[in-house]
Amino acid sequence: MAAEVRWLLLVSAIILAIARGNDGSAPHRRFEYKYSFKPPYLAQKDGSVPFWQYGGNAIASEENVRIAPSLRSQKGGIWSKEKTSFDWWEAEVTFRVTGRGRVGADGLAFWYSESPGGHDGPVFGSADQWNGLGVIFDSFDNDNKHNNPYIMAIHNDGTKVFDHQNDGSTQLLAGCLRDFRNKPFPTKAKIEYYQHVLTVHFHSGMTNNDEDYEVCIRAENVVLPKYGYFGLTAATGGLADDHDALSFLTTSLHVPGQSPPTIPLPIDAEQEKLAHEYEEYQKKLDKQREDYRREHPEDHQGEGEEYETEQDRELRQIFSGQSQMFAELRDMGRKLSEIVGRQESTISLLSQVHTVVSGGGIPVIGQNGQAVPPQHAQVPPQVGAQPVMARHEVDALLTQQRELVNTARELKTYLVELHQRTSAIQQAQEKQGTAHVVGGAYDQQQLAAELRDGLNSVKRDMAAAAQRLSAPPPPCPTVSGCVSTTVFITVAAVQLVILLGYSLYRDSKESQAKKFY
Q: Closest by alpha carbon to 249, among 80, 107, 130, 62?
């Protein structure tokens, strides 16, 4: 039992010692606004970022800095204007890398360099052979080892050339394989350099918890330049991503017991000197104003009249608002009066009509639109007035109106039923198949065309027959004089003589031919 108590006391003492040591070694932190930027109003109206300068293809807006857009072969960067004045620091970078493809290029880099690295250099937009630290977020796999996206820290003393073929794997201090592309929330990186120990914490952007960091890189005995510039650069290649920097927050770290340097305030002598100079300038300005007024009294008479004081402006606004309200209220009162008048006239007219109808008739409507009882109506009625209608005529008129309404309802019901049947027929035809429906329709059209042609031909024949029957008979042809008997015999005798002569001539020729042989 005593041994267990001793062990508990020993463990408690060790834990207290470690806690006290950690409390005593916690650095003093101070936010450095001259080395930071964040939204909103990240960029000014002229497009500049306070205490920073950007170039290349970088674009600054009120919400972020697009270091490299999603276009091929783009480079850009943003660097702090002033050199650091503290030894140890922590930088928290919030960024987004988004693209359409599964693989992106080339990547984004954080820099702490003795001199600004530019905006269009060969190393992710920065210059090569830098003197300082580079934390590179490489999204393209140049060596085809399937080890990207990759985060790596590289320390360069100003003499090394970045190894692009191997993605800098031969030069890095440490690294980790983390995916930072196309995340639902912005990704974050917290780079801390304190007492020659470099630590990189990474937020994957999968959650919206600001404390969801994990250790990515830790390297000891890292010696960086005492003072330097902060920067962010990015580059694209054949593939392209949007590289957006949302914020860059820098905090200086100071060893416990060492107070951070304070900004020197002007001493009392300087304050008195500045106050004295201001008073002299104010007196000189007042004297010049009085001299000008004495020399130009006419200009002084209307001075201030063209300008409006705050009280005058407020009174004018109040007066204009009240005037507008008064005009609206007056317009509303006028419209309400018109509505009330119309309502009263309608009520009086209806009461008169009800009174007369209950007495057995319909009032006469005069030219002025007023109802006149039938007992006071003139007979015959005046021009522009309507005769009195009896009660049975009114009932008949109402009955006819009801019948018209019922007929309209029946017609509507019939049309609805017809529409439903037509729709059902169309749906049935569509269910039978397109080819069958089309063929049947074509046969019906062909048959109808043949019937129409036959009827047309029959109509034409009937019309022609009727026309022939109705037309008068044609006259008989005129008979010319006949050939006389003498002429006929003479012509026949001549033909006979010619035939006989030809026959005798042919026989004589044949006989002569026989004698020759």
A: 80
How far apart CA 64 and CA 76 sit, in angstroms, is 14
Q: Residue range 504-508: average pLDDT?
A: 86
Let me know: does 108 contact 233? Beta carbons within 8 Å.
yes
500 occurs within a structural domain:
no
Residue pLDDT, tens place only, 168-186: 888 889 999 999 999 999 9
Whole-angstrom distance, CA of residue 80 vs CA of residue 234: 16
Whether 36 is in a domain gets the answer yes
Tell me the backbone φ, ψ of residue 343, rounded to 5 degrees.
Answer: -65, -40
pTM above 0.70, yes or no: no
Q: Does residue 11 belong to any structural domain of this protein? A: no
Please state whether the peptide bond connecting residue 472 to the residue before it is cis, i.e. omega within 30 degrees of 0.
Answer: no
Record the tokens describing residue 376, joined without a space.
């006071």
Residue from 186, 178, 167 nearest 97 by CA:
186
pLDDT band at 380 (very low <50, low <70, confident <90, very high): very low
Which of 95, 116, 126, 84 is closest to 250 using CA atoms? 84
Distance, CA of 382 to CA of 390 (rounded, Å): 19
| pLDDT digits 0-9 by tens, 117-143 | 888 899 999 999 999 999 999 988 777
Do the Cβ atoms of 96 and 108 come closer than 8 Å?
no
Tell me the per-residue pLDDT of 319-342, one tens digit each, with 9 for 90 and over: 888 888 888 888 888 888 888 888
Domain residues for 152?
Answer: 24-254
What are the distances in angstroms from CA 353 to CA 196, 290, 387? 106, 87, 15
CATH number at residue 127: 2.60.120.200
Q: What is the pLDDT at residue 11?
A: 56
Give the pair of three-digit tokens for residue 402. Answer: 């009801």
Number of domains in the chain: 1
13 within some domain: no
